[in-house]
Amino acid sequence: MQDQNISQSSSKVLVVGGGVGGIRTALDLAEAGRDVVLIEKSYSIGGLMTLLDRTFPTNNCDLCTISPHLSESGRDLHIELMTMTQIEKLEGSAGDFTVSLATQPRYIDLEKCTACGDCQRAFPDCVRFTPGLDHRAPTCMRYPQATPYAFSIDMEKCANPEELAKVCRSEAIIINDAPKMKDVKIGAIVLAPGAEVFDPSVLDGYCYGSEPDVVTSLEYERILSASGPTKGELVRPSDGKKPKKIAWIQCVGSRSVKEGCAPYCSSACCMFALKEAMVTRERFSKDNEIETTIFFMDMRTSWKDYELYLQRAKKDYGVRLVRSRPHNIFPDPETDMLAISYTTDASAAAQTEQFDMVVLATGFKVPQEMRDLAGKLGIELNEHSFAKTGSFDPVAASKPGVYVCGLFEAPKDIPETMVQASAAACNAARHVAQHKKAAEDPAELPPERDVTGEDPKIGVFICDCGFDIGGVIDVNRVVEAARFIPNVAASEMVGHGCSRESLERIADVIKEKGLNRVVIGGCSPRTHETLFQDTIRNAGINKYLVEMANLRDQDTWVHRDNPEAATQKAMELIRMAAGSVRLAHPLADNVFPVNKDVLVIGGGVAGMSSALSLADMGFKVYLTEKTGKLGGVAKNIHRNIEGDDVQKFMNDLIDIVQRHPNIEVITGSVVVDHSGIAGMFKTGLQIGPQMYYRAINHGVTIVATGALPNRPDEYLLGKNKAVVTQLDLDGIIETAPDKVKSWNSVAMIQCVGSRSPENPNCSRICCQSTVKNAIRIKTINPDANVYVLYRDMRTPGFLEDYYSKARAMGVIFARYEVDAKPIVEAEGDGIRIKFFDPILGRDVSAFVDCLALSTGLVADEEDTEELGMIFHLPRTTDNYFLEEHVKLRPVDLPIPGFFVAGSAHAPKSIRDSIAQAQAAAGRAQTFLARDAINLGAVVAHVDGNRCAACLICVRACPFGVPFINADGHSQIDADKCHGCGVCAAECPAKAIQLMRFEDDQLCAQIDALLYGALERMA
Amino acid sequence: MENFEPIIVAFCCHYCAYTAADMAGSKRLSYPPNVKIIKAPCSGKIDAIHIMQALQKGADGVYVAGCLEGDCHFKSGNTRAAQRVSYIKKLLEEIGIEGERVEMFTMSAGMGERFAEVATEFTEKIRKMGPNPIKRAAKAAC
Question: Which CATH number is B50's domain given?
Fold first, then answer.
């Protein structure tokens, strides 16, 4: 909680960095009604993620999930995108900053550039156009519109700028473009500048740079990528041969005290190495001809379900894992391979093994320019040069009004970046007021003319799109041919159809001729349909009475070598569009008012943090808690690993929440029923010992039900008082330090009740609790022996510092294998523990005064099952709630209007829970910013008279929307329908029609295309 | 069959195949103009009626193009489309029309090359097969 009195004199938020984090923040803020300036130092947005081939744990190219939003951000009027731009200086304070922005010249007028490519073809050396089209490009830039969809000129390489400028028919090239400075008033800043990848050429042992077959993991992604330098062929850079043996070396540049390396853990590398090995086996090794080996120190797969991914890599994909940090790679000229020398626990002697290729899993580093940026902004950095943030305020930088997310905060992977991005948006939004509602108000539009009962009167408008269409086909002939299509009342050519002039012309013709349907022949409806819909709506016609024929992207651009055939095809496409629009009906968008109240379920640290963020923004929050008091598991924790007083923080938080005028705390309450859709939910509670019933109306729901401290029946837990959990031990250390002083020896066992057949996932928080408690014991009682028996020490990011500190303080870390667990027996007042120490290579037997078990958290199966059923929310096999998208939407639940925070999602530390709670609040806020929900018009409609209630649609719908209603026929609620049309295709009685894509409309296109085809043959 | 120019109908889903077709345009990849695209929100929307009607009215080949397996914007629409297409292929064989006149293809939205490749290969395949037998029947009837 950075500051309570928020000043809001400026109306914009500055987002720095156009990677996935910055884009998410900008979109969240824009959706929440804030004006955003998004700056990016490169010439298009996308960041590091767009360089990846595939992403874990889905092994999909999940870019298709975000790229529609990328172009959305380019279109959204409330996001001003400034590429090739950086911060010069910052003045003022939170709520009232003035930032000076410096923009490098692009030499291209973004307004005029149509990305036709003429300039690049004429002068390939000096024109840049990254995404999608060259080998450095994002793998599957699945969407052709890079944002911004325009070229940029490298003027230094251009010998003759005048000649270049002449090539452009749109006159978009500005040869005398110059750097620009601009001052912008802003209320808050979100920094999402990312980080750079470690350059392994500083390490002499790995031959990076001298041996072409030693590559970094990012270079390997490019090799795998279909749009990469090898066009998706997996071959060795040196000789173009397919490799048979590939090795990955982990922690290159991370977890190291070597010169130039970072001591922290880079967090994401274990998972991306596993992914690369799996993808290699899956896509390029159909006959198991490629062997994949990963050399690692600890496998750190601790985020949600990552442990299962590790198991899949080992069992299903046969990825070989070798626990070792190799010292050297050296080329073997005889075999033309790379030899790796390493040692393992099994034998002290160095082994050598040969590989065709070696991938270095390089981590993240903060580049110098970001240190300079921090200096300009006046924010503090930590000892590793990442942005310094608070342990209870995970995305707030040291300067009020400045927030951070993603790699600049700490090394992390994409889901955690997405969480922080939404959390940063939530915090930044508090500094700026919501902008005035856009002029979408129906009252400002002319009345819609009722065209029902009128004969169709179609107007056909054909763009020549500069030369892009008119340069290939004979537009006049297409215009003339269109006059003979039935019901066409007007047909004309309109230059650039999307120019203001042309749009006005179209509107005039509609009014003059009394048209009631429109066909546009031009570019793709994917990019321009909304523009033409708005145009005809402004001319008084329902917006669904326009159809576009894609004459450019799907005709003139692809049939330039055959103008006559392209002209014929254009005529057919126009005929098809006219056939379809002739049958189109005026449709109303499905619009519903939004209830702005919030229901938060769960009164732990996550639930309270979400409630507080939203309440501070003025939303009414109902905070329900099953037990009699607020606090959850965190109420029992005394210190975090940073040493902060958790009790004080929790007491303050509870106090603020309870006294907040916008929060109503309802303790002793359970959810019993639920109905409605996002924006108008109704949830029933039973409250208190009397179990009286109360219904809450609300617009969104945040699920923050947490998890339970696990207490498995293992190692005498609950049977011997010397055996405790790490949570118990935290309390003993805080409240009874004298007892700790009296101990001679303490042992800790990791992964008790986690990473086991019964509970296969990692509990994530236990390694850090262990390190925290070990350090505290050593601080109080330096002479005590502390043994930590572990399987993998998972201290990602800067937690690695504490792990190193514990080792330095003399804590003994000994690894055990899962099939040779430590043996524990009661002995006197303490415990006898026996284990094998792989470093000493022998069995150890020790008497300890206290045995602390790292038992982690488990989901409350009963509770989550109940809530899952009531809310229709899916859960993972281990009973945590399953999010909408594991990579890109980690706080959205699959039911619109539901969000998840804290350990209800997966085990989390307090800091991570707060970040996710703020993210959930941020995502909720985007929904609550609107007054109404417009669900569009493409929904399935059931004709009850034809429906036989056969249940086929009920089974076919991918989203489970149709149900048989009280009238005995299928009902598909417009507010839930996603508009795919699967039900319409499956319905045997054809009782279901998908609006805008009705069967007769599709058939009309077929008829129009094939008109006379049979006769022509005859 | 001299100068036989097959008529190909391509039903394309909005999220992947239609976008891939636009991508082919952006990259100026040429493919035969015989291919005419009809857009649907999802390949799972394309019904047997539409495919059969196209053949009945004189299309020489029809294909449905959806998202890659596992990547369907609507979760499973593409697998339903694939099932439907294989059902129609059998049905066509039963009535004496080559099942290969109907195909299902999948591609991601970025695969402009694949769109052009599929359009070219399918058109050439149909060209070699000759006109839709329904047309021959219609001619014989005259």
Answer: 3.40.50
- Which among A538, A483, A488 has a CA at the least distance from the CA of A515? A488
**A795 and A726 inside one domain:** yes
| Mutate: best of A139, A1003, A1014, partner B, most B CBs <10 A | A1014
B18 lies in some domain: yes
DSSP per-residue letters across B103-142: EEEE--TT-HHHHHHHHHHHHHHHHHH-S-HHHHHHHHH-
Q: Is the domain of A165 the same as that of A266?
A: no
In a domain, B87, yes or no: yes
Task: Select the residue from A50, A63, A554 to test the B interface by mutation, using most B Cβ atoms within 10 A.
Answer: A554
- Give exposure, A536-565, as e/b (b: 16+ Cβ within 10 Å): bbbbbbbbbbbbbbbbbbbbbbbbeeeeeb
Q: Judge whether B89 lies within some domain.
A: yes
Q: CA-CA distances (angstroms) from residue A845 to A716, A781, A836, B37?
A: 17, 22, 9, 75
Write the ipTM: 0.97
Cβ B59–A980 below 8 Å, yes or no? no
Q: In whole angstroms, what is the distance from residue A707 CA to residue A861 CA?
A: 9
Of A143, A999, A1007, the CB nearest to B109: A143
A55 in the same domain as A25? yes
Range of the domain at A967: 940-994
| Interchain proximity B59–A999, CB inside 8 Å | no
**Within a domain: A206:** yes
Rounded Cα–Cα distance for residues A470 and A477 (Å)? 11
Contact A605, A632 (CB under 8 A): yes
Rounded Cα distance between A633 and A608, Å, is 13
| Partner-chain residue, chosen from A133, A554, A1010, that has the shortest CB–CB distance to B57 | A1010
One domain, residues A729 and A638: no
Chain A residue with Cα closest to B50:
A1003
Buried b (16+ CB within 10 A) or exposed e, A295-304: bbbbbbbbbb
Which range of residues forms the domain containing residue B73?
Answer: 8-141
Q: Are residues A853 and A990 in the same domain?
A: no
* Alpha helices by DSSP H, A57-190: 63-75, 118-122, 161-167
- Whether A3 is covered by a domain: the verdict is no
- Please, what are the averages of pLDDT over each run of 10 residues along chain A (1018 residues)? 52 92 91 91 77 67 52 61 92 94 89 75 72 32 49 81 85 88 95 93 91 92 75 87 96 93 96 95 88 97 93 94 94 95 84 96 94 95 96 96 97 95 96 69 75 94 84 95 96 82 90 96 87 91 96 93 96 97 93 93 98 96 97 96 96 98 97 87 94 96 97 96 97 97 97 92 96 98 97 97 97 95 96 93 95 96 92 87 86 91 96 97 94 86 96 92 94 89 96 96 96 76
Q: How far is CA A523 from CA A462, A498, A567, in A?
A: 10, 9, 15
